[in-house]
Amino acid sequence: MKDSIFFKLNFILKTKYKIYLCIFVLTLIIGLAFQLIGISSIIPLTSTFFEQPTDNNFFLKIKDVFPMLEKINNFSMLLTFFVSCIILSNLIFIFSTYLSAKITFAIERDLRNTLYDYFINNNYSFFFNTTNSKFISLMINETQRLCTSVLLPLAEVASRTVLVLGISIFLIYLTTKETTLVILLILFFYFVYYLLIRKKIIQNNKLLTKNNEDLVKNSNDLFKSFREVKIYGIENMFFDKIINITNKIQKIRFFTVFFSTSPRYYMEIIMFLIIYIFFLLKGQNINIEKISFLAVFIYAFFKILPSLQGLFSQFMVAKSNLDSLEVIYKKINEFKDNKQHSEETNFKINSEKEDFKQIKLKNISFDYDDKRILDEIELNISKGEKIGIKGNSGSGKTTLINLIVGLLKPSSGEIYFNDNKIKPHQLINMYDNKIGIIPQNPTMLETSIRENILLGEKEIKEKLYKSLNIAGLNNFSEKDLNKNIHSSSLNLSGGQIQRISIARAIYRSPNILIIDEGFNQLDNENEKRVMQNLMEIKDLTVIMVYHNIFNENLLNKIFLIENHKLKII
Questions:
Q1: What count of other Cβ atoms lies within 10 Å of the Cβ of residue 18?
Q2: Residue 510 to residues 216, 433, 480, 523: CA-CA distances in angstroms?
């Protein structure tokens, strides 16, 4: 059975927001009560204005309670009462609008925080199930769509529904036949109008999600490949793609806005024609009592019509963006399932972390998409060893590293940490964040070189310059360290980026240093100097993965991955 909209909202909303929403609905009901009291006073007000007799006992009782009203005539008193009720009701509705906006944007903020939390704290393998464009679109487009184009409109729908229902019931009580006829006519008009565009709304709902993702994807692709775009002269190819996507988004949004707002004007034309015909037929045969009721009816109708139109247009907006709720609901479910599984199995052997002494991989195999990558691997790594793992591209070197640090779970085999058999997912905790990694393609943040090295760690000058020296960046000045890195990293050379990555890893004083093809951008001289610096660090365990290096003689042991097997050479 497919989950309902309210079930999904209940699932993703925190309890405090559900309470706030109840308060919001309560303010609407209170506002409606004052609105109806004000409208009901129009009849005696109109009668008093035309000097028709009213219930004097009512006024006498009021003046007995409030003697200061003795000098005020009945019309002034009723007029003041009417205006006060309408002003008060509108102030309450303004407060309800404030509440709905405040709640909605707080939900948007918390949703983004929740999604970030689930994503960043999930396991490494889960990362591969989420593409960059989908994640960014989810965080920016879909959360914004849900809050501003679903939750806010639904709050408006609730607000206007309360108002329309309340006034309609009041009018039916006054003039049952005429009001019922008019309401049925209006509802029939909106129902037919909605049926005519319903199919297009459902289609646009899905298309908007896809086009938002495509826009993010193409923008990312353009930024990542800007140099190639200029060199190959393919600006028009990217431009045409972006234009095509933005045109589709514009057409969807235009359809939603135009067809959700235009019915009001058709309806007003019809209603004015009805009123016009009514006065033509009745002519002068309208008494004061009918004028009073007609004044109430016209006022109430022109209160209902904008509200009914607003209800319809906001319903249309919400309906056109409901796919965002489905996307976020599914993703939170997916995140929660993976995170829960990770937390259920993520326990520690001892209450205190142990210093790294040794790790053993025994009969470790790993399959990916039913394809054997590593087969019955045996590997012992002790504290302070400098080992190399070499092999051709695609042989499984990086996979082995991810198994060693606990980012991936083996298909079979056993892992021992300091002679204690442990679960694979416990590994990364057992290292106690004392692993440094130098990847083949390091990620540089859009901030200063200094911040890229520190990564949130407290700056210690001596330690920072020691890390720079080990990485071969001892010529970097304070000005260089404060230089911002462009998101494409094109304002730095490949060698500089790798050496910044080396300084980043060393600054964290790791027990184990992983070098995953991390020297492939260094020339022979820099490679040798950096390797010698690393090998001289006492008790530092180095695991170096490479296809080809010039200084492997500096390593203690060298292993080769070939035909899914690992052997020492």
A1: 11
A2: 37, 8, 25, 25
Residue with tokens 């938002």: 212
DSSP helix/strand/coil, 363: strand
SS3 560: strand
Select the highest-mean-pLDDT range: 348-362, 363-377, 419-433: 363-377
Residues 485-511 have pLDDT tens digits of 887 777 888 888 999 999 999 998 998
Q: Which is more confident, 489 or 193?
A: 193
Q: Alpha helices, DSSP H only, in 262-374?
A: 263-282, 288-320, 323-345
Q: Which residue has the tokens 């309890």?
A: 15
SS3 562: strand
Structure tokens at 355: 């210093």
Question: Which residue(s) pair with 435 in the sheet?
Answer: 512
Neighbours of 96 (CB within 10 A): 23
Residue 514's beta-bridge partner residues? 437, 543
Considering only CA atoms, which of 353, 193, 203 is closest in space to residue 261? Answer: 193
What sign results for the dihedral spanned by CA atoms 435, 436, 438, 443? positive
- The angle at the Cα of 32, spanning 29 to 33, to the nearest 5 degrees, equals 90
Instruction: State whether residue 534 is helix, strand or coil.
Output: helix
> Taking the CB of residue 352, how many other CB atoms lie within 10 A of it?
7
Residues 544 and 388: beta-carbon distance below 8 Å? yes
Cβ 368 vs Cβ 403: under 8 Å: no
Location of structure tokens 């203690």: 556
Average pLDDT, the chain: 80
Find, among 333, 529, 507, the residue nearest to 434 by Cα. 507
| pLDDT-based confidence at residue 378 (cuts at 50, 70, 90) | very high
Three-state DSSP class for 222?
A: helix
**Comparing C-alpha atoms, which of 256, 271, 267 is closest to residue 148?**
256
Q: Is the pTM of this model over 0.90?
A: no
